[in-house]
Amino acid sequence: MSVRKMIALHPNSAGHVNEPLATAAKHAMYCALFCTSCADACSAESMDMRQCIRTCLDCADVCTAAAKLAMRLTGDDDAMVRAMLTACIDACALCAAECDKHDHEHCRLCATMCRECAADCREALATLH
């Protein structure tokens, strides 16, 4: 399955796909999954990981919302998409910084995914009017 194909099939796209926005939507969904998995792994750690769990779950929710808004093509709401991409960038930065505090491989992987997602969202922002 392809996010790009789904976007191209939308009647309002006329076959045009904003590639950076499609990539950002796809990676935001991946990031949501990584953050959720990291939070779950943190809950099994013997040390107090409450803050990391909270930050990861919050980031997952923001990433999910950003991905959903990026996929909507009916109507024109670039301002809302910009706001969500900006929120996603900020949430990913906070989550990466929190995960960087811990010496767990799942936290390192989550932080890397968050940074990649934030970079993709920045690229997508540059394409919006």
From TrEMBL:
Listed Pfam families: Csp
Protein origin, superkingdom: Bacteria
Database matches in InterPro entries: Csp_YhjQ, YHJQ-like
PANTHER family, per the entry: CYTOPLASMIC PROTEIN, CYTOPLASMIC PROTEIN-RELATED
Protein name as catalogued: Four-helix bundle copper-binding protein
Lineage summary: Bacteria, Pseudomonadati, Pseudomonadota, Alphaproteobacteria, Sphingomonadales
